[in-house]
Amino acid sequence: MIEFNLFLIDYWYFSFPLFLTIILWSRHEMNRGGNKITSADLTRLVNKNSATVIDLRSADEFNIGHIANSINMPHDAFEKYSHRISSDRQKPIILVCSMGSQSKNIGETLKNMEYANINILQGGILTWQQEGLPLVTE
Q1: Superfamily of chain region 33-130
Q2: Is Glycoprotein set as a keyword in this record (predicted)?
Q3: Strand pairing partners for 53?
């Protein structure tokens, strides 16, 4: 370990670009797909800004329980259902999946469709449930 530290110090001109690249890549990955929001942020955006909540889970998972007034657009068939999204490209959109990982790809798709206010629920529906927040069935 000491030799590695000495290498980093002695060859700082190699080490610095490497660390800078890692930091920039990490920041890019964290922001990919949209803003990461908490459950409290989701509630606030829905109540104050009439945000659209899009549930990306399968229809079966959605029917077991989902956030009130959310729209089901399964991740694997998103293109088929994308016409159901508001034409107002400034209106907040909140993407919800099982654990928050699938939403990034759909967020990038929405950015390419020129939607400006894309948000992703951190931890997905699993975190929503762990926080004791309600799910509805229809």
Answers
A1: Rhodanese-like domain (3.40.250.10)
A2: no
A3: 94
